[in-house]
Amino acid sequence: MVPTSLASLSDSPGTSPPAGPTAPPRLSLQVAPIATDTTTIRSLDWDRSRFDIEFGLRNGTTYNAFLVRGEKTALIDSSHLKFADTWLAALEQQIDPAAIDHLIVSHTEPDHSGLIGHLLERNPEIEIVASKVAIQFLENQLHRPFRSRAVKSGDSLELGTNPSSGTDHRLEFLSAPNLHWPDTIFSFDHGSGILYTCDAFGLHYCSEELFDSDPGAIAPDFRFYYDCLMGPNARSVLQALKRMEALPPIQTIAVGHGPLLRHHLDLWVGDYRDWSSGRSKGEAYTAVCYLSQYGFCDRISQAIARGIGKAEAQVQLVDLRASDAQELAALVGEASAVVVPTWPAEPEAELQASIGTLLAALQPGQWVACYDAYGGNDEPIDTVASQLRSLGQKQAFEPLRIRQVPLAEDYQRCEEAGTDLGQLLTRDRTIAAMKSLDGDLDKALGRLSGGLYVVTARQGEGESQRSGAMVASWVSQASFEPPGLTVAVARDRAIEALLQVGDRFVLNVLREDNHQQLLRHFLRRFPPGADRFAGVNTLDGVAAGGPVLGDALAYLGCRVAQRLEGPDHWIIYAVVEQGNVADTTATTAVHHRKVGNHY
Ligand SMILES: Cc1cc2nc3c(=O)[nH]c(=O)nc-3n(C[C@H](O)[C@H](O)[C@H](O)COP(=O)(O)O)c2cc1C
Fold first, then answer.
1. Domain residues for 105?
2. Does 159 have pLDDT greater than 50?
């Protein structure tokens, strides 16, 4: 019997979604030589989930540390606290921790610096080498005295000549503020040609493959990581690239996350240059302010910044704790939009001064918006919102209220609010682009037609659930074996975040005789984080990846296999894993257009 409505398909056989992970997360260690006198200790975190905004592609992550032995020995970074037992044991197999002379702290984020306290217990004399800001952060974090040396661009540390290899190791430092923490430094070993960059050039990808031997496999994660963490600091990326150009030839970029970059350096560095140049073309930008090491500010600001970037608008992250007054006043005063977190009700004197500078630098014509830092003892968000608008500024989006430790849906809401703001700033450009097509070409292009579909996606369970939906007509079958299709998804679509490589979604095929209501519903302008399925007849559990619309003619359960980056759309190629038709006598709704510069 042919079912006439997808509502009757809920028990139909199909490929069931893979069972969710129930086993405890897998953690392992990898120790390997990577160059003369140089060993890496990589902490492999196979299951670190995508709950954190930047862990987008479900491939886990790694935290990489390095031992460099000249006459003296330096350890570059450590690991996450969760590796305390195994990582320290692995280190001890390599060297007595008391014999390490220097600990280079590339930046103080806990996933790389979580074991510094443990190291100091074993070696209270170790000298911590870091940027001045990082040393201040560590003083607040460690609550114990330690020997330190503050370094900046151009400074060097002589490790001397390794007695067995005869290689001289001199570490030269490069300041790389904002990549992605304000306190970041890179270290270049003149003996091995390795540049240690910690977060910069990294990617969240867990495998035992030490190097970038298969660039295709890691490229989507490399791009996603850039978009989340580095893109909002594109100007700082370009500054760091300039500093790198002055170094002797770099043999390897030893990143803090993922495989080390050795075989395709030109590709990775070229990508950073192209992407960052594209994002910092002296246009209007949004200053997204945050407070390093306060509540969930760092992550929330990144989600907002990623959203703004999706709309092709410029963004600059500004740390209210680390920026000096002059820099802060300029970044805020020259911005077209300013986004601000709630700050502690009783800030320390320096922060109090920065907040004063920020408020004084705001300009009447700017867009402003605020978000909860969720730091525990914050100034109420409405107070912050009204201070931001005291000169009659326009509110870019409703205050983002976060009433609990941020969940996946909060990050999604922040990203969508960021995109709305980005679209406000790029509106004129978008309208101009739509008008710019040549008339005849435009009409000819308009003769391309497609079906009408609704793409739906839902990920995660319970509190960490995220979902989305969009109307699509730029859909085409793209392969027979395996069955595959493409959907062109505009870069600033809310649902784009749920269509990363490996993600599942459902393509709902609309019926010619019954599609107007669904179109009207899904084409509404939804506020950030809105439930797009409220009031719609959906069937859950039919297809992996998203709800099936009860009134659709057919559904296809798809898994994203590749993403091709077009100028204004991502071409998502997906393998179709399951599907069914409700009514084989009905036809697909078709979208006929007059012109090619609209859908
Ligand atoms: C007939 C029609 C077809 C569309 N097809 C596509 C499409 O193929 N790809 C796309 O990115 N957007 C397409 N859109 C636009 C989006 O469906 C819609 O504007 C979007 O859901 C709103 O953006 P948001 O989801 O990011 O809020 C289409 C819109 C219409 C009216």
1. 27-278
2. yes
